[in-house]
Structures are given as structure tokens and as C-alpha cells.
User: Fold these one by one.
Assistant:
Number 1:
Amino acid sequence: MKKIATAALLGATLSVTPSTPALAESPIGFAVGGGSLNFDVSGTFADVDSGGTDIDLENDLGLEGGTGSYIYVVIEHGVPLLPNVRLAWTELEEEADVILDSSITIDGQLFPENTFVRTEADLSHTDLTLYYEVLEGTIDLDLGMTARKFDGGITTTGRNIFGSVSATQSLDTVIPLLYGMVQFNVPNTGLYVAADGSLLSWEGSSFYDMWLKAGYLFSMGVGLEVGYRKIDMQLDDVEGTDADITLDGQYMALLFAF
């Protein structure tokens, strides 16, 4: 349980942090925290059911990235065979306005060339991670599984001299992911470096969420962390959607461990 701070700042799946004497002595460790992420976004998506063509997030819709946020709660315990638990909520939203230089089709709806369109993208998600501490000490190792729930999508509204049109390419699905984390704790300090990720590949689709991080946990149970996160999503007819989307950027996080 010394490593609850690590598992906490982990997130994807959302962040990690090292140990404190209080956590090591307690039968139950508890941590909460959150952070901000400056992200870039790129890639394409298409509605398979309506036979839509690939829509480029940046070139067609003007989506380039923005600022996201996340919070998490971690509980570690000493009960044999029962996994530790982390809940994480990530908000990734962006809005952009463009005038189309070519026609596009979203969810069966045609948006003609020269149409003014506003796009609202929501790739927010909720994670439930169940994991076991395989190693604990100078080197920590966690292994488990994450269930990631997306409940958003991309909504585009267009206006031209003929009126207005709107279409939504929804992303409403649960993705089961393999989860792993490895962390090196610098002896006799609160410093650590870590990497963690959640990934899965199935039937022509793949998904991974990777974190690289460095941080410091103070003796009073407050931790600071900075790092890099990358999400890569390749969907082949998942809930009627094809997608090849990447989000990546730097993040900062704050942790409170009890």
C-alpha cells in the first residue's frame, strides 16, 4: 500500500505516485487528486452505417486540441485476492468554427462546400481499474484491467443560405483494456519516475493510453507530478464508427494521499 500515491496519479487511466509512512502503516490507503492536460488532436473518423467518407478533424473541422482535466480516487487494501480499485474521470472537449472548403457527410447528413460549421467534440471518459500490486519497493509493478466508458462524440452544426443542418457521430461504448504500471522510486527521497498504460487490440481495432511521468511526494502526503500522455484510438466499425484519432500532450497533477 505504500504505492497508492503512484496508482493514484496514474490515471487513464489517470496517474501515479509513491508511498508515505502513513499509507504503509494503514490497512487501507486512500488517495484523491486531479490535473490538467494540454492536448493536441489529429486524425479521421467516418460513419460506417451511412457510408460516410473519412472526415479529418483538423483539416475539415478545425479541431486542433485544447485543455482537458481529470480527477481520480484510489483505494488500496490488504485483503488477499481482492484487487485494488481506482476510479478516474477525464474531460476532453473542444469546439471549433470553420467554413468548409469541400463537401463532407456526417451520419448521413451532407454539409455542402462553403457551409459555416461549428463542431463540438467530446472524448470524455470514465475508467474503472482493478489491479494487483505485483512488486512494491524501489521498483513498483501493478497489473490489472481497466473498463473505459466513452459517452460523447462529435456534433457538427452547419449554416448556409439554404438553412441549417446538424449531425452527430456518437461514441458511446465500453472498451476493456489491459493495464500495467512500472515505477522507480529514488531511495530515501520522494522522487519517482514511472510509465503506465492501458491497451487492447481486437478484430482490426486497437486502443492504447500511455503515460510517462516524474513526480515528488512530500512527507505530508501531498504530491506533484508532470508528464506526457498519449491516447491512440483505431476503431474498425465499433458502434458503427471507423476512427483513427490521436490525442497527446503534457499534463500536471496534484495528489492528496491519506
Note: The domain at 4-257 is CATH 2.40.128 (Lipocalin).
Number 2:
Amino acid sequence: MASTIEQQTVDQAETSATALIGELQREVQQLRSKLLELERFVHSMTWRGRWRRYLALLVGAQLNRLVHYSPRPLRLPRRYYRLPPLPQPPPSFSIVTPSYNQGRFLEATIRSVLDQNYPALEYVIQDGGSTDQTGEILARYRHRLHAVESGKDRGQAHAINKGFQKTTNGQIMAWLNSDDLFLPGTLHYVAAFFACHPDVDVVYGHRIIIDTQGREVGRWVLPPHSDTMLQWADYVPQETLFWRRRLWERVGGLDESFQFALDWDLLLRFREAGARFVRLPRFLGAFRVHAEQKTTAELASKGTPEMDRLRQRLHGRPVTLEDIRRHMRSYMIRHVLYNRLYQLGLYRI
């Protein structure tokens, strides 16, 4: 009897110790994330951090800024409005827009998709139960949409997954946030490229940045795709990203534990699945900058810990800011080169 009681006591102690160790490990990981965040902040305040920012501005690096110049009308070359021929039948698209209380931008987003006049399109709006003018906008366009649903969800990743569950036929997939835009001719251009390059699984393009009124405030001109870049940072403009359905089904959709870095996590799982990426030589989408957007509001509280989590998963250790800069240096140099050539009119987009 005494032996049984002693064994139970030992078992309880082992269970408590295991739970305590797990809790300590989680606390250590949280402290590491906070330490890395503090390191980034302190470093940015030092003379070296200021010097790097001034140097980046001098040489023309644009990827760490979202506003490059004063607002101006968004203008595109005439060729963007000339649609390329499509194979018959044309490749089909499944596109989802997750939405929540973005009524002041939502109609422009919807129009940017529908005005593509693409002949094989499943377009789904997955709304999180908005309380603004979203309902009125959706009512006006419901007859042109493949599906519309408004109700509570568990976050953006869950909404996007739910939206894609309503689609069946799209060979090419994408999501477009409710404050961003597709640029004219994007769907035809992407479809024609995929049709001519059956070995390519994922494509993305250059980005135009717009303000709340749809005026242009910047442009991201990217070098060709880099696998190294993708392992250390995510400079793939989400609103320009398209992929084949077979790849989505292979990796299992979005990880709903992510609220900020869900697109980078998806790209890394595409990479692990052996996907071939191509950066297309065209501006495909417009990213809207405004005070309420998640990219601005949640970077410090959710974005940094999620990005640290992905880097730890990929590299098996905590990653410092110097690690990221060292491995990104070559990509940034090529970005500066392509951006300068574009500004001089020697790189046609």
C-alpha cells in the first residue's frame, strides 16, 4: 500500500515538473521574442541605424517604406488595357475577398475584380459581420458574385479558408483584401502566363502603393524571385500573389493560428512543397495605406512575434536583426539596381 502511494506521489511530481518545464519554455520563448523586438528598436535609434536609413534613401531602396512621394494620380501604360489572347477554354480563377468594416474601400476592391471582365471567374466575398455600409455594397453586387456570406469568423485566415471552400472550379487562386486593388488587365495577364508556363506554380508582381483616395504614393520594383529572400523576409506583395489550386490542396490552405504573417507562412509551405516561383515583370496590384489597416496597427503586437516564430521554425534558432540584414543584402542590392533602371526608363514594366 505504501509503495502504491509512493509511486502515485512520484507520478504526480513528474507530471507537475513536466507542466512547469513546459510553462518555463513558453516564457523563455516569449522573453526571447521581446528581447529581439527591443534589440530592433534600440538598434534603430543608434547612429548606425540612422545611417542605414539615410543610406537606403540615398541609393534608392524602397522596400522598407510605404510612402515614397506626395500623392499623385495613378497612371498606367496603355498596354495594361490591351488584353492578351487566352487559350480556349480560358484558365479559371477562384478569388476571395475577406472583409470586415472596410465599407469605404470595399466597392473599389470589388470593382477592380469585376471590371477585369474575365470570362471564367469565381469571386467570393467573405465578410465578418460588418456593421458599416458593407451590407449595402454587397447587396448591389450580389448578382455578380459567386458567393457572399456575412457572419462572425475566427480571423482573416479563417475567413479566407471559408471563402475558398465555396469555390470548386478555379484552377488559379488568389485573395484580395478589402482595401486593396487589382490593376487593369491583371487576370488576363496572369492567366496567359500560367497557360504558357505549366511548370510554374506561384507568381507575383510589382506593387503600386495608394492612399485612402486611390492616389499613388509609391511603387515597389522587385528583382527576380529569390529563395534566400523568402527564408529571411517576406517582400512578396500579397495583393499580386496567385497560385495553382493543386498547390493549395497539397499544403492544406492557410494556418489559422496566424493573424499577421499568414501569407508568409503559406509561401514557406508552398516552398517546402517544391513550388516554382516567378516574379512577373508587371504591376499587378495596388496596396492601400491607411491608419486602420492591419499592417500598420498590428505590426508590433502580432506581426513581429509571428515573423520571429516563422524564422525560428525555418532556421531552428532565434534570428537576430544582423542575421536578417546579412542574408538580405544581395536581394536589396538587386532591388536598388532594378528600381534605378526603372526610374531611368531602362527597365520596362
Note: The radius of gyration is 23 Å.
